[in-house]
Write a structure and sequence with these properties.
The chain is α/β, with parallel strands linked by helices. The protein is built from 7 helices and 5 strands; from the N terminus they run E-H-H-E-H-H-E-H-H-E-H-E. The protein has a 5-stranded parallel beta sheet. Helix 1 packs across helix 3, helix 5 crosses helix 6 and helix 6 packs parallel to helix 7. The radius of gyration is 15 Å and the shape is globular. The model has no long low-confidence stretch (mean pLDDT 96).
């Protein structure tokens, strides 16, 4: 199975019941996930936000957390480092990204060994996908 970098926004539908479209499920079967070190924290934040907003039930929240634990056993994780921080800071000067998105993209860039061409970056965030495409990744949008 080919590896791809998965932004947190792309993994969320796979964790929350009934949110993964058939196309996202196909991507999950085709690409093994590589993620940024803080992805699980971002996902847990999103799950808690959905629970507080009443968008998911307590059972769905618990199931999402369990699904995340399952994904964590499958993914490769890019760890924080000084080069990653430097790249993230440089990306913020070049693209209209949040700090978290800059770290996601920097992690993908480190994973690609600074050769993103022919490497896939999967996300549901259009701005982040645009930056990933500009850096040289094959950007795949989830629906």
């Amino acid at each position: 199975m080919e590896a791809a970098f998965w932004d947190t926004s792309a993994l969320l539908p796979l964790c929350i019941r009934n949110q993964a479209s058939p196309s996202v499920q196909r991507l999950a079967h085709r690409y093994s996930p590589v993620v940024w070190w803080a992805t699980s924290v971002e996902a847990c934040s999103a799950f808690a936000r959905e629970l507080r907003a009443g968008s998911v039930s307590a059972d769905d929240h618990a199931a999402a957390q369990e699904n995340l634990r399952t994904w964590k056993r499958k993914w490769r994780e890019v760890q924080p480092s000084e080069p990653l921080r430097t790249i993230a800071e440089e990306l913020l000067d070049r693209y209209p990204l949040s700090a978290a998105d800059a770290m996601q993209l920097a992690a993908a860039y480190i994973w690609s060994e600074q050769r993103p061409f022919r490497r896939c970056f999967i996300s549901g965030d259009k701005r982040l996908l645009g930056a990933a495409r500009s850096v040289g990744f094959h950007a795949i949008a989830i629906d």
